[in-house]
Amino acid sequence: MAIVVGALFGFAAPAQADHPTATPPGAEESLLRASETQTPGSEHAAAHAQQRALAGSGAPSAAGTQPAAAGNPAQDGRWGGAFEIPVHGIHAALLPTGKVMLWARPFATPDNEAVAWLWDPTKQLGDPARFKRVDPPLFTDPETGVRKPANIWCSGQSHMADGQLLVTGGNLASPSENPPRVDYAGMKTVYTFNPFNETWTEQPKMGKGRWYPSQALLPDGRTLLMSGLDETGSGANNKQVELFSPPSARGGQGKITKIGDRGGAGQPPDGGLYPHLAVLPSGRTLMAGPQERDSWLLRAPGAGSGLSWTGLPKTDRHRLWGSGVLRPGGTGGSTAFTLIGGSDFDSDQDPPGQPLGSGVRTSVTFDESKAAEGWTTAPPLTNGRSHHNTVLLPDKSMVTVGGGLGSSPAGPGIYGAGQWAATDKQRPVELMDPATGSWRLGAAQAESRAYHSTALLLPDGRVMSAGDDQNGGAAQDTAEIYEPPYLLKGLPRPVLDSAPATATYGASFDVTSSGPAPARAVLMAPGAVTHANDMSQRAVELALTRRTGGARLTAPARAALAPPGYYMLFLVSDQGVPSVARFVRLGPSPPGKPPPPKPKPAPVKPKPPSVLPDRRGPSIAFNARRGLRGRTVKGRVSDPSGVKRMQVAVTSARDGRCRSWSPRRRRFGRASRRACARPAFFSARLRRSGGGYVWTARLGARLARGRYVVALRAVDGRGNVAARTGGRAARVTVR
Questions:
Q1: Comparing C-alpha atoms, which of 100, 83, 237 is closest to residue 159?
Q2: Please, what is the Cα angle at 223 between 219 and 224, to 5 degrees?
Q3: How open is the CA angle 140-144-149, to the nearest 5 degrees?
């Protein structure tokens, strides 16, 4: 079913339960500030102090929201009005059902628990199904012994091959004096969320806790787990590298396996929190930032345990709170990964109490096909940013959304403070032009969205932006929807009428479409983003051959180009305008079965009576000897889902030129070569008969003696199309 996103209006958030607003038990602000300037350093201290102050007051930012500036939508894109959401958009993931999951802690409270909501973009204001609360399973708070929804805020998240969402780690406990804890403690918990029945399943625990971890789906369907503060609250990083093996069925139990450690002799370096991970066409996984030493390749793990890695040159600088993307490539995959913006601040070097780093404009790229060159300079942003989100778009462009200064005290022209500090320079999006490779400013959003903001691509080609739990208020949040320029140039969009539900590596499959002919097809992995780190998005180009009424596409040759799972399939016109996407599940052939053969071309001259079976559309029957008589054309059509529409075209041909019959004018039109390939269809009436329909098309007049071509087209109840045109059309003689 195609996903069509409806208009977005304001939403009145349901009343939330009251929560205490004091700092964690036994913790005084002076102690917290002192402890938080220790490992991992002052990069967290000022931010969390400001966070606690806001939680205590519940007051919105004094200047966090401003009217969006007007511009040229066809060049800059356009923001829609902000609408309220019932949770801070600190974590966001697009599910294969088209819904978006958002989760964070409850509004305006430091309570050690999480709330999670589903947002259905297809539902209108007032529809009770527009938002649905789906809190994670209950967990015993180690401070109070109270059972409450597990605090999966500050977790890692990514999609699995079967469409489930995998969430690892989170906030076990906050810094405190009693018990003594100098930093945040990470949870050992692992949860999966089934988007099809909207239920959670608790999985086996990891070896140690993880707070601010990263993860990546590998080509074999397992998920790599890495980094994050451990469960001790001492500020120690979890140095274990683990794999999550998925269960055999949704809702089942997976398995956690340790494959190695980091930071020791002969081991990969132990780096920063929320590092960027990306699977490359070689099958190796790139570790990239935020610290300079976070630059190495993990070789594909085997069936057993074991960690094999290759070191790379360091990145150019520390890029705390910067984004990272695997650049769009060709059908052979992308070998280039770019780190964008961020702050040049290292808690290991700067003494406590010093100002944190400001967001930078610069970017660097590592290209595995040119590995000897290391990290090379890439086109810079127009304005420096940290805490921003960079989203891949189906036309091969990218959009960088939001962000702020990195960290700064409050001051003139600055909204928020600490890690939420932002100025008007970060409100406009930045668009990467794939033709020039350079960034330029676009439309400005209404709300500053810095620390704890998210952005991701929706199935209709728009971009959702949410989060920032200070600008706009600590007791509320909004989301905004960005329409990229490709939707605002007044050009028609291709319509993806039908596509298979599954696709197999290396196999070809057919799709039907209408509107502008597709020039490109691309699979877009749905996003799963937090803290400027999208752990799932990627763009995968497909080989495309145009066909009458659609196209033949070829799936990626192997899983290293596109790990198994659900993807949004977009068709893109030669003007760069994408269709609304359909979700397709990509994966290997079932065990023990060979890959499906490539589809064979249809016969040129079917024998009468002509019957067209089409698994993606209705079956059409037409007797070439008896179907055209007098003033009518008749036949039968059937489909299990019903038949919405039946159309007929009658043409005569001479000297390579064709004329199409018009029932309204009761004559043939002008002769042209185009009419041979694209005849003029007119509607037939449908009448139920037995298990199908009898269709009748009235010509309005008798045809003269001669030879004619009858083309047929039918649409079933699901919108799938079957057609008999060109060489598959029926040849009829009128005597």
A1: 100
A2: 105
A3: 35
- pTM more than 0.85: no
Alpha-carbon torsion (725, 726, 730, 734), positive or negative: positive
Closest to 342 (Cα-Cα) out of 357, 354, 325, 359: 359
| Separation of alpha carbons 34 and 37, rounded Å | 6
Structure token digits, residue 492: 């028609």
* Residue 28 · residue 177 · CB < 8 Å: yes
Are the C-beta atoms of 638 and 614 separated by less than 8 Å? no
The residues near 592 (Cβ < 8 Å, ≥ 6 apart) are none
CA 348 to chain centroid, in Å, comes to 35
The count of other CB atoms within 10 Å of the CB of residue 554 is 18
Coil vs helix vs strand at 138: strand
Q: What tokens were used for 200? A: 């959670």
Max CA pair span of the chain: 100
Q: What's the mean per-residue pLDDT of the chain?
A: 85
Residue type, 412: P
Nearest alpha carbon to residue 91 among 64, 55, 116: 116
Question: How far is residue 644 from each of residues 498, 679, 693, measured CA to CA in Å?
Answer: 15, 21, 11
In this structure, what are the phi and psi dihedrals at residue 74, rounded to the nearest 5 degrees?
-65, -20
Q: Is 310 exposed, middle or buried (0-12, 13-18, 19+ CB in 10 A)?
A: exposed
> In terms of Cα–Cα distance, which of 524, 430, 565 is closest to 484?
430
Are 403 and 416 spatial neighbours (Cβ–Cβ below 8 Å)?
no
Name the pLDDT band for 427 (thresholds 50, 70, 90).
very high
User: Helix/strand/coil (H, E, C) string of 158-198?
Assistant: EECCCCCEEEECCEEECCECCCCECCCEEECCEEEEECCCC
- CA–CA distances in Å: residue 189 to residues 73, 199, 201, 567, 717: 45, 16, 11, 27, 45
Tell me the HSE value of 214 on the side-chain side, using a 13 A CA sphere.
26
Per-residue model confidence as pLDDT tens digits over 491-506: 999 999 999 999 999 9
Distance CA 691, CA 639 (A): 9
Residue 157 bridge partners (DSSP): 167
Q: How many residues does the chain have?
A: 735
Distance CA 328, CA 301 (A): 25
Closest of 86, 105, 100, 256 to residue 168, by C-alpha: 256
Residue 516 Cα distances to 46, 435, 501, 550, angstroms = 53, 22, 23, 10
* Cα 252 to Cα 164, 199, 204, 246, 534, distances in angstroms: 11, 12, 11, 8, 26
C-alpha 660 chain-centroid distance: 45
For 179-207, how does the pLDDT look when each residue is reduced to its tens digit (9 = 90+)? 889 999 999 999 999 999 999 999 999 99
Provide the pairing of β-strand 502-504 with 582-587.
Answer: parallel
Comparison of pLDDT for 502 and 706, the residue scoring more: 502
Q: 3-state DSSP call for residue 674? A: helix
Which helix (H) or strand (E) segment is 44 a member of? helix 42-57
pLDDT band at 65 (very low <50, low <70, confident <90, very high): low
User: Could you tell me which of 109, 110, 111, 129 has the C-alpha nearest to residue 119?
Assistant: 129
Please, which residues have CB within 8 angstroms of residue 611's CB and are 6 or more apart in sequence? 619, 620, 621
φ, ψ of residue 162 to 5 degrees: the values are: -90, 10
Q: How many Cα atoms occupy the beta-carbon half-sphere of 111 within 13 Å?
A: 20
> Tokens representing 310?
């290759």
pLDDT top residue among 211 and 20: 211
CA distance 644 to 618: 10
- The single residue listed with the structure tokens 């996003």 is 527
Residue 52 belongs to what H/E stretch?
Answer: helix 42-57
Which residues are within 8 A (CB) of 202 and not within 5 positions of it... i.e. 6 or more apart? 137, 189, 190, 191
Q: Which residues face 431 on adjacent strands? A: 399, 440
